[in-house]
Amino acid sequence: MPNYIVVLGSIMSGLGKGILTASIGKILQSRGFKVKPMKFDGYLNVDCGTMNPFRHGEVFVLRDGKEVDMDFGTYERFLNIDLDADASITGGRIFKDIIEREREGKFLGRDVQFVPHVTNWIKDHIVSYANKNNLDFLIIEVGGTVGDIENSYFIEALRQLSMKEKVMFVQLTYLPNLYGELKTKPTQHATQILRGMGIQPSVIVARANKRLDKETREKIKLYCNVDYVMNDHELSTVYELPLLLEQEGMYEAIRTFFKLECRKAELDSWESRVNKLKTSPHKGKIAIVGKYTKQVDSYASLREALINASAELGIKPSIEFVEAEDIKGNVEQLSQYDGIIVPGGFGKRGVEEKIKAIQFARENKKPFLGICFGMQLMAVEFARNVMGLDACSEEIESCKDPAVILQPNQKDVKQIGGTLRLGDYEMDIKEGTILHEIYGKDKAIERHRHRYEINPKYILSFEDNGLIVSATHKDLIEAMEYDRKKFGFGIGLQAHPEFTSRFERPSPVFVRFLKESLASFLGS
Ligand code: GLN
Prior knowledge:
nine-stranded mixed beta sheet, alpha/beta, 23 strands, globular, 524 residues, seven-stranded parallel beta sheet, Rossmann fold
């Protein structure tokens, strides 16, 4: 029988519910339990695919191609597991499904209501997911904060679920620091709101900018009616949270609630990576030249993939976001960096500056990594400045020599949502290439999210001039790299290797890129 843990947020957003959910998962997984997270988001989008990263942070892609909230990246990085579309529920997905069934006449003349139809949909989905996956624990993160209209029916469904199944509620709150004193009143109100919905949390996790003192902890216990109040103060790395929760007795609280046996956590290798990250010397600088840099969560997986690789190598470069448009005429500013990344992206803004950044990397033999749009622009830059063509990407403009074109099977696509080339595809990697050294094998699977592709018409002249196709999937070019002798280390991937990087299993692409960029500091 699966156990259920529900993580609810209160007071304000941005407190790190996703990291808390993943960390609770980690401490259970490290005891041998089979754990998966699930997330509910209240918005009416069916999935995250149509959302602008500026407003919502990165769109993460699962292996089955589902475009989901960035918290899924945190779950996968922490738990080192692949999740699937059914782990992500949005308000839009629930209503779309129910309304379609209503149109098909499946409700047999009944009026369709929030209770019981929407709440039953939610409960059925949760229970069948937990059973189908044979889980010991399903950890459900409820997006938004308690008291929002958007998640109220979801919380009601969870209350109903708790009448039948074993469901433990964990509430994340925030303690504002007023002249040195951590104030508990907002937390008391937050718990009252939840109690008004018929739910009593068992654990309160208190996010604050410093540790709780004994008195504050006791006060929260007494007024919020809970036995467990846990610290969640500022940490130097998010990967430290499972270790903090261990100290704070999270397993003890879970064990008591679900009446489980004592089990020892196996977190040694996790801890040694955390320690390596904390003690590694700060050396070198990596630039991410993008268009959504003012909202750093837009590139969350990319940043974390670099951090995961840093923990592996024991060196911590500073990762700096450079807004492409700000480069203007001054591309020389990039000379301060040891490696340059142009990440995935869409649309015209900043494109010419990104191309200049790539040219700068190539001409100065700065290690370069182009991801998706970054690889497409690598090809455009090369076609223009090495091959002398009037080149562009068809996504941006029309020109005589489009180096990047719409994938043929995208021509008839009318609807935007969920129609890109999404999710896992296998690439065949050419022997003798740097990419082959990186993966150490002939085939690798990575996740994708794109509509355009490198124009295969130019393969021969790309290769003649020193831009080598290093991987393909059928006719589609999956990866390219510079002839190293001519242009230094530079690789591009149509896929997003950042989506498969895990804390305990960093992506080999990022490990190699950092090794190349930081070679002078690593002494190799
Ligand atoms: N805009 C490009 C495309 O659709 C690249 C997408 C991306 O970088 N994820 O092909």
